[in-house]
Amino acid sequence: MDSKKMVLIGLVLTAFFSSLAVFELIPGLLMSFLLLFVGIAVTYYFALSRMRLESLAGISILLKAAKEIGRESKAPEISRLLGLWAQRLVKSEAALVWWQGEWVLGDEEFTAWPGLETAREWVKNNNEILVLYKNGGEIFSHPWPSNINSLLGWPLMVTGEAVGMLFLLNESKRGYFVPQDSEALEVICQQAAAALNKASDYQKLEYFYKEILFSMLNALDSRFPGFTGHSQRVARVAALLGSKLGLDEEELRILEYAALLHDAGKVFFLQEGLPGEAGELEEELSVPLVEEHPLLGAQILPNKGIFAKVRQGILYHHERYDGSGYPEGLSRTDIPLAARIIAVADLYDALTRLAPEEERLEPEAAVTEIKKSMGMLLDPLVVVVMEEVERKHDDIT
Q: Model-level pTM?
């Protein structure tokens, strides 16, 4: 029954009992009891309705929070969302998240308190919720700092072990937490623990893949010592440029792998006795053969899924903004952005590190030289960002 119907029924009953009282068909005392009973019933109903609405609102918030947290794949963002939603559900001044040995969300103003370390150890060892406040319930003798008056700690459980934890500090309404506050956190803490564990596993797997890739690149570099570290440096510069250009997490990952593998096609040029200094490889090979290396490098990867996008960065990194590049003569924005970024990063490393020692340029001079090609060979926007990045990083490689 909705509120409008309840109010209508209340008015009808009130009018009915008032009529009986006016015509003295019902004693006054009994009338008072009846009105009292109706008032209590109406009040109770509205209280239940309010509780039901609050409960539905709470469930809606929990579902939205769990959905947002579960969508993320990086520990910092998962932790930020966990803290944000936890503070919305349980009003508090600060949220801190500890995960696998470090504070992934926190403020040194609070994390420097020795008592927090003791609280963290207690939660880890007991796998239980911890509620503390200044005036009672302390489990340790550490003095409370002036900026903390209450604490709630929740373990983030994975396979029965507290590998992380959430702390809320300084309850905003009462000034202290109560055990019931923790009930609202159960769903999002479980979701966050699962998401953080998945992110950690993914990070370990990606690290493993990169180690294999670095080993392959090092093997290639060992045949041409002048190129040692070139691919890694180009990937580093490209990642900085991509981040500055606003690429999202997946786009940055694609860019990094494409940059690492941009010269992978040169593995097909390996021959016994080839010279190893930078610049000499191209001198030993015909121009058509050198120009094939983007195509050969792209063919190493399957043309599906995320690999298809990595292939584009490899295949087109020698295309030029004015259409004078290879292998297809693409121009301007027809060239994938990843390839345009790699082209700038590649040239920067060639000028600062690959060139013979007497011809190498300092970073600022290299950027000045690169700017001469903007709008012709290189994307002007990427070149401008290259200048900004070089100014902010003394040694970007």
A: 0.58
12 and 125, same structural domain?
no
pLDDT tens figures, 18-66: 665 555 555 555 555 555 565 666 565 555 555 444 444 455 666 677 7
Classify residue 273 as left (phi > 0), alpha (psi -120 to 50) or beta. Answer: left
Q: Tell me, letter by letter, the H, E, C secondary structure of the chain.
A: CCHHHHHHHHHHHHHHHHHHHHCCCCCHHHHHHHHHHHHHHHHHHHHHHHHHHHHHHHHHHHHHHHHHHHHCCCHHHHHHHHHHHHHHHCCEEEEEEEECCEEEECCHHHHCCHHHHHHHHHHHHHCCCEEEECCECCCCCCCCCCCCCEEEEEEEEECCEEEEEEEEEEECCCCCCCHHHHHCCHHHHHHHHHHHHHHHHHHHHHHHHHHHHHHHHHHHHHHCHHHCCHHHHHHHHHHHHHHHCCCCHHHHHHHHHHHHCCCHHHHHHCCCCCCCCCCHHHHHCCHHHHCCHHHHHHHCCCCCHHHHHHHHHHHCCCCCCCCCCCCCCCCHHHCCHHHHHHHHHHHHHHHHHHCCHHHCCCHHHHHHHHHCCECCCECHHHHHHHHHHHHHCCCCC
Segment 225-265, tens digit of pLDDT: 677 888 889 999 999 999 999 998 889 989 999 999 898 88
The verdict on residue 217 lying in a domain is no
Identify the CATH number of the domain in which residue 173 sits. 3.30.450.40
Residue numbers of the domain that contains 241? 224-392
Residues 230 and 374 placed together within one structural domain of the fold: yes
Question: Considering the domain boundaries, does residue 308 fall inside one?
Answer: yes
Q: How many domains are contained in the chain?
A: 3
Structure tokens given for 363: 């970073």
Task: Note whether residue 298 is domain-resident.
Answer: yes
CATH number of the domain that residue 342 is part of:
1.10.3210.10
Residue 208 falls inside a structural domain: no
